[in-house]
Specification:
The complex is a heterodimer of chains A (329) and B (270). Chain A is mainly alpha-helical. Chain A has a domain at 78-270 and 297-327: MetI-like fold (Orthogonal Bundle). Chain A contains 12 helices and 4 strands; from the N terminus they run H-H-E-E-H-H-H-H-H-H-H-H-H-H-E-E. Chain A has helices at 3-42, 45-48, 78-109, 112-127, 130-157, 173-198, 201-209, 214-225, 227-243, 246-251, 270-281, 288-315; strands at 62-64, 67-69, 323-324, 327-328. In chain A, the strands form 2 sheets. Chain A has a two-stranded antiparallel ribbon. In chain A, strands 3-4 form a two-stranded antiparallel ribbon. In chain A, helix 3 packs across helix 11 (270-281) and helix 6 packs antiparallel against helix 9 (227-243). With 270 residues, chain B is mainly alpha-helical. Chain B has one domain: MetI-like (MetI-like fold, Orthogonal Bundle), CATH 1.10.3720.10. Helices cover 78% and strands 0% of the residues of chain B. Chain B contains 12 helices and no strands. The longest helix of chain B is centred in the first third of the chain and has 38 residues, at 3-40. In chain B, 53% of the residues are buried. The chains are: A mainly alpha (329), B mainly alpha (270). Chains A and B meet through helix 1, helix 3, helix 4, helix 5 and helix 8 of A and helix 1, helix 3, helix 4, helix 5 and helix 6 of B.
């Protein structure tokens, strides 16, 4: 084979390997380009107002400070931002201890055969399409919450302000958080499990030889040793929760312009709002709705990226072979 | 009994309880979808086109596979060739830049990818809601998985085999196509199957790139496509009993597809 062909192949593969970089650059430039009119028009009010109204798109647009916008429109994402953060944080707070205890228990007490089975079953969670979580949430979780769990929580935890007050249809902060918790459990469990497996066996054996019980070995030796990976796992889980769209769209209650008063209240998240508002944005002849939603998308992307990239950086790319959504990280 | 032993024992109990609890939830979710799906699904649904309130889901099943197919055709070649460059030619700094950018792609929320697909493919390139727009948006999401797994499989080719090939006079391309790619074949196939299973279950990217079609799309661009996850989402949000049945039937097909693809990939891996 001539040498020339090798050279052509080199350049061909080089060009192809630029495509992922090109896609990300395009992604950011498109979002930014479409956001600019909204950034100019809305300014900081975009983040401090919770009132989002697409405006009367069928009436003639009005001119505000030289910019044409739909009559009566208002773009503030505070409610969505709050919803995204609160649901993801509650999900993380529930998933965090569960994933640690489960991955420790699996490694300490379960024999090799069952361990593999349990880990791959938990990883199956990650494979379930997110609309199916939403489907299950609507049909089973919401009635369960509004009929049994939420009244009980109201009764016994009602002395705390966030847990008292009205109970709604079941769709809301609590339902979204529970679904998100189930969706981030696999990634957190497999990352933590991976770092326990990678943890030096001789140190573990040393602890046992010194007379520590398995629980003491877990608490005093392993947990201290993998602290940083656990933080990374939490960040990866958070990144996934922040960006989740369909499941949350289905069980959040998709509320607009009403800030939630307690954990049972309906809510809306940035991803869910983007999915549900884009439809009507196309009717807007001034384009401001699309610009504002692009800014919403850009904000969501930056928040999600921050969490995920910190997580990936800590967990160490390719060092731990966690298995999430079939992906090897 | 010693307090330390009691602590150890209660931790063990807590662990067992949580493991069983989580597995029970998993069984409840999959079980409820499978059972409801089996109750709802009829043969007529599988062979008729429909619009999420009446008819069947044949167009959605076909549309899902078409979208996934376009996504795979887009992502697999790009993923494999990028991985070849990274493993065989790339220098350290360039590789880590590609890695960071693919990580950014992996971490991008699916609805943001959908918005990008809408702004770039549907509007800018003028594809309209179509097979190409939806499929490429899925492909963008699949690309990082394919790239990463192919890269790992290519690095796992033993050095002595590569050295033997080179010492026998193999050119770079011979080495790549005759030694390394066959060696990494299983990894590539596994990642492709997993990418299919991920693509088949996605919704948010497709809402504003694929649209919905009561029939089968007749062109690559400007012809909308139906897909299964949309039936689940739209069906359960409509009041009629039949649309709920359609949603559960689609859910059943989705979950069977995804799980069997995962089992196949695990089998191949072994």
């Amino acid at each position: 084979m001539p040498h020339k062909l090798d050279k052509i192949f080199y350049f061909l593969t080089f060009l192809i390997s630029i495509i992922p970089i090109f896609l990300v650059v395009m992604l950011f430039s498109f979002l930014l380009y479409y956001s600019i009119p909204s950034i100019k028009y809305n300014g900081l009010k975009f983040f401090t107002s919770y009132y989002w109204y697409p405006g009367q798109v069928y009436l003639p647009p009005v001119n505000i400070n030289g910019i044409l916008v739909p009559y009566g429109s208002s773009f503030g994402i505070l409610l969505f931002l709050y919803g995204t953060l609160i649901t993801s944080l509650i999900a993380l707070i529930i998933a965090f201890p569960i994933s640690i205890v489960v991955s420790l228990a699996v490694n300490l007490y379960v024999n090799e055969k069952f361990k593999k089975l349990i880990i791959s079953l938990i990883e199956l969670f990650a494979a379930i399409p997110s609309v199916l979580y939403g489907l299950w949430g609507i049909v089973y979780l919401e009635p369960l919450l509004s009929n049994f769990i939420e009244p009980a929580m109201n009764k016994y935890l009602g002395f705390m302000p966030f847990f008292s007050g009205n109970i709604y249809s079941g769709a809301g902060i609590l339902a979204s958080s529970i679904i998100l918790c189930l969706m981030i459990l696999p990634i957190m469990t497999s990352v933590i499990n991976g770092s326990i497996l990678n943890f030096s066996t001789s140190i573990k054996e040393g602890a046992i030889a010194l007379g520590a019980t398995r629980y003491e070995m877990a608490r005093l030796i392993i947990l201290r040793g993998i602290k940083i990976q656990i933080f990374g796992a939490a960040m990866l889980g958070l990144g996934r929760a922040l960006g989740e769209t369909m499941a949350v769209l289905m069980v959040s209650g998709s509320v607009f312009n009403i800030m939630p008063s307690n954990i049972y209240s309906p809510i809306n998240t940035m991803a869910a709002a983007l999915a549900s508002l884009l439809d009507s944005a196309f009717m807007d002849s001034t384009g401001m709705n699309l610009y504002a939603l692009s800014e919403l998308g850009l904000t969501l992307m930056l928040i999600t990226l921050a969490a995920s990239l910190i997580g990936r950086f800590i967990v160490g790319l390719g060092i731990i072979r966690g298995f999430t959504r079939g992906e090897e990280i | 009994m010693n307090i330390r032993v009691i602590k150890d024992f209660s931790f063990k109990l807590l662990g067992y309880f949580l493991i069983l609890f989580i597995i029970a939830i998993l069984v409840a979710i999959t079980g409820s979808i499978i059972i409801n799906g089996l109750h709802s699904i009829t043969l007529k649904m599988l062979i008729e086109n429909g619009d999420t309130t009446s008819g069947g889901i044949f167009n959605a099943i076909v549309g899902t596979w078409m979208l996934v197919g376009v996504g795979i055709l887009f992502s697999v070649p790009i993923g494999i060739f990028s991985a070849i460059f990274i493993v065989e030619y790339g220098w350290k700094r360039y590789n880590s830049i590609v890695r960071v950018f693919t990580d950014v792609l992996t971490s991008t929320p699916s609805i943001v990818l959908g918005l990008f697909g809408y702004l770039f493919l549907v509007i800018q390139l003028g594809f309209g809601y179509s097979l190409l727009a939806g499929g490429i948006t899925l492909g963008i999401m699949m690309l990082p998985y394919i790239l990463r797994v192919t890269e790992i499989s290519l690095t796992e080719v033993p050095t002595n085999i590569k050295e033997a090939a080179i010492s026998l006079g193999a050119k770079k391309m011979d080495l790549i196509f005759r030694i390394m790619l066959p060696y990494a074949k299983n990894g590539i196939i596994t990642s492709t199957i997993l990418a299919i299973s991920i693509g088949a279950g996605e919704t948010a990217q497709l809402l504003y790139t694929a649209g919905w079609n009561n029939g089968i799309p007749n062109s690559l661009i400007k012809s909308q496509v139906a897909y299964l996850t949309y039936v689940v989402w739209a069906g359960i949000n409509q009041p009629s009993n039949y649309s709920h049945q359609l949603a559960f039937a689609s859910g059943l097909i989705l979950i069977i597809t995804v799980f069997s693809l995962i089992f196949i990939s695990k089998y191949i891996k072994r």
